[in-house]
Amino acid sequence: MSIAVFPGSFDPITVGHVEIVKRAAKIFDRVYVSILENPGKGSEFSVEDRLELINDAIKDIPNAVSDAYAGLLVDYCRRKGANVIVRGIRTGNDVDYEAMLESVNNRIAPEITTVYLISGAEYMHISSSLVRQLMKIGISIDGLVPNADHKLLRRG
Ligand code: PNS
Predict the structure, then answer these.
(1) pLDDT computed for residue 32 by the predictor
(2) What is the pTM of this model?
(3) What's the gap in Å between 99 CA and the centre of ligand 1?
(4) Is 136 among the domain residues?
(5) Whose CA is nearest to atom 16 of ligand 1?
(6) Alpha-carbon distances, residue 151 vs 18, 51, 52, 75, 133 (angstroms)
(7) Domain hosting residue 25, numbered range
(8) Is 65 helix (H, G, I), strand (E, B) or coil?
């Protein structure tokens, strides 16, 4: 069985993330959509709330499973039996950061391969940080997240 991990902060999950999950779910038998629990990195949403939003977003993708991890991503992949990491690339700006992540991960766990999916053009400028900023100033996030009417996203 092919198992992949799609890791990230998902603070919150966006329609761009969901597009990547859908495509990855066609390639791999199981896709973990996994939140990094990082106490050092302040997040807007708690891990529990982010899991709830992910579960709502992926409920129609039977082979996608939400989860959370702490510590090294590659250790988590090994625990899950995954030998593939999936990451989305929006624009060229993402590439340097992704190359850095891959070089570290590859150094620690050369048996794990990172696979990149290039976001569709309509998702190129969508990010969790944009969603958070719009929420703070009270501008609609319809179309940017899969579940804009979810109670967790209805705050000013
Ligand atoms: O969505 P993000 O915040 O860009 O995701 C980054 C993430 C969570 C994939 C990455 O920071 C991560 O997995 N960190 C866990 C610690 C780790 O494995 N570090 C080694 C690679 S730098």
Answers:
(1) 99
(2) 0.96
(3) 12
(4) yes
(5) 72
(6) 19, 14, 11, 34, 18
(7) 3-146
(8) strand
- Helix residue spans in 65-136 (DSSP H): 73-80, 93-108, 128-136
Residue 154 domain flag = no
- List, for residues 17-53, the tens digit of each pLDDT value: 999 999 999 999 999 999 999 877 789 999 999 999 9
CATH number at residue 49: 3.40.50.620
**Atom number of ligand 1 nearest to Cα 108:** 20
Q: What is the pLDDT of residue 26?
A: 98
Q: Which atom of ligand 1 is nearest to the CA of 100?
A: 22
What is the structure's pLDDT at 68? 98
What residues in the chain have per-residue pLDDT under 50? 156
Do the domain assignments include residue 129? yes
The answer to whether position 152 is within a domain reads no
Going by alpha carbons, the residue nearest to atom 21 of ligand 1 is 101
Q: Are 145 and 131 in contact (CB under 8 A)?
A: yes
Residue ranges lining ligand 1, Cβ < 6 Å: 7-9, 36, 72-73, 101, 104-105
| Domain total in the chain | 1
